[in-house]
Amino acid sequence: MQGSLSIERMCQLSQVSRTGFYRFLQERLPREEDMEVRSAVQQVALEHRRRYGYRRVTAELKRRGLLVNHKRVARIMREDNLLGVQPKRFVTTTDSAHTLEVYLNLARRMQLSGIDQLWVADITYIRLQSEFVYLAVVLDGYSRKVVGWKLDRTLASRLAVEALQQAIELRSPLPGLVHHSDRGIQYASADYVALLMQYGIVPSMSRPANPYDNASCESFIKTLKREEIYANEYRDLDDLRGHIEEFIERYYNQQRLHSALGYQTPAEFETQSCAKNEAGSHSATLRFFSGDPQKVTTALVGEGTQTPSLPHTPTLLGESTR
To answer: Does this model's pTM top 0.85?
Structure first.
């Protein structure tokens, strides 16, 4: 609309001062920019069904080319009631009071370099209106991707075996893969251990009373309950199973940004990892420490390799429960 007229001439014709015009311009632009940012924040938050907190919303905005401070995003989400659903109290489901064999914790000694080197497994219960059902999951410890899951009202030990079978069929892992879990009876059962041994998978279990050894799987279950279970109501088991499948297969694995992966999705992270490791080693490194802090034993875990014994301890595939 300005055409060939100068700002000064336009101010004269409009009978306003140049100072007043520039003051008006400075006030107007921030308002428009703030509305643009607020609209983008609302779009991301609603796309992810209010599952994202302000950090992930900030990361997603940056991926879309909008640079914004995370404090500002948090303020906007608080003002617009878009903050993520808060978790309920955590309830443990692990029964480790059994006499079955338990196994040495290998997961905390591993330095991962690719997928299918470490799997982590856990099981939890979900309450419906008239019953409890169990969910068993298996995650890749490197990419945090869910590689196997089963949901049903059946026995927890049977469900855990079915989730592991699904993961094996999907990924076809090489012998030497380490499988880590808590000391629950479902993971120490004869059927579960037999399936591990059949495919050359090395069992590993958390230390007593230390659930943080299995933190990545615990974190996934916490995310699932906060962002899906506690945010919805389900008619029955079939309705729940449909929602869980949608959340795991199409949202968590494919769309949800993961802070531990540099705000990438598990699927993106695996694609990049496989491209980088195409010509490299596919084995993780195990590190063991003896009484001398200067002496460190390292070994590769993979096809055709043998897991070394830990000095002055029982064998790797079994440890005393006393």
So the answer is: no
